[in-house]
């Protein structure tokens, strides 16, 4: 892998900070090998390949997969919060369901875009 | 995002005649993955349309990250992406809520807020592996290319056609060329052969019927393949000699047999010469025969001089080979044995035996071949 250090470095950050960050990154990337993201590697590679992403390193693929998973999880948790808020206001005796999807999604999507 | 589907009805996925969407496999897989993530978040049930939308969003996010990181890598003069390219791309595409330190420019990328958040997420969230094992996709198939002119060892018909282009199709594919009709003639000969064989069968059947009609149950014995002359002779012992089955050549041995009889010529039966040849062979049944009357019933055809030049009177083209037995060696020396009847069936066996018989004959008496 190609570790390129960016040139403009603030003087506050000492070498140890750099090393910490680097260490954190390397450690994180190493931990990614054990962690299996929910989005499978094959799917991620397929869509990254479609957009021109070229990398043989599995860790980077996993990184992208994890980032996407985080994104989706955040969207879902927001939707869940919306849903629960509505349920609390409507007070219906129903299970935890995702209802009125289109409305929810419009609100979410507008906030994203 | 149903761009490729003609039917945009909400249940388009469940209609049986649905046109396949592009990247359907990828979409389905992403649907499953997103559903798993949502389940981990806390949802219990989903609307399929909502799930589809979320899966599409996830795929788009993925593609955006790829595009951005590729562009950063290209900007730096590389073709392969870096971890920093990815982090920068993540910051660009980012969460819709932003991240810590986004406003700070010039920070070390390694200390990016985005990355930190991702790390936190990995630490906090429980690992949910994908539900199904996936093959590597997309699957590439070997394409069978049309061979080029050089591969087919053909020269292009005109100068303007380069040799590395695919070869032109064979002329028989687009116009009528003269056919090679050996097959047709073979068919004709096959038909002729079949007709001939059928005629043979019919003839032998007729013959059998005639014999049965003439001689009754005793006549069946003469037409059986397996009997040899001596056996037949034995069978005829019990019956009335006048209604005995006709004797084949060499079947019966005349007790008062000598050369002088033959020399006397036409007055005597012509088959005496034959009997002489079969003397040793039929000695066992000689005493049982007392009657010469039946001798010449069938033996006119076997008019043979003593010397042994076989005059072949063949009224059938095939020869009865199965009937030959221990007398065969003697028979072959001096005469051809015409076939008087044949049980139908076993034509192939008969042909084989005929071939063997011919071989034997040719080996034992080359003279006879000239007369055949």
UniProtKB/TrEMBL annotation, chain A:
Spans annotated as Disordered: 1-21
Record's keyword terms, sorted: Nucleus, Transcription, Transcription regulation
Molecular function in Gene Ontology: promoter-specific chromatin binding; RNA polymerase II general transcription initiation factor activity
Principal subcellular localization: nucleus
GO biological process, one term: transcription initiation at RNA polymerase II promoter
InterPro entries noted in UniProt: TAF10
Entry GO terms, CC: SAGA complex; transcription factor TFIID complex
Compartments, as annotated in UniProt: Nucleus
UniProt record similarity statement: Belongs to the TAF10 family.
The name this protein goes by in its record: Transcription initiation factor TFIID subunit 10
Species, as recorded: Trapa natans
TrEMBL record, chain B:
Main location: nucleus
InterPro entries the record matches: BTP (IPR006565), Histone-fold (IPR009072), TAF8 (IPR037818), TFIID_su8_C (IPR019473)
Molecular-function GO terms, alphabetical: protein heterodimerization activity
One Pfam family it belongs to: TAF8_C
Chloroplast listed as a keyword: no
Ranges for domain Bromodomain associated: 23-99
Keyword Zinc-finger: no
Location(s), subcellular: Nucleus
Entry similarity comment: Belongs to the TAF8 family.
Entry protein name: Transcription initiation factor TFIID subunit 8
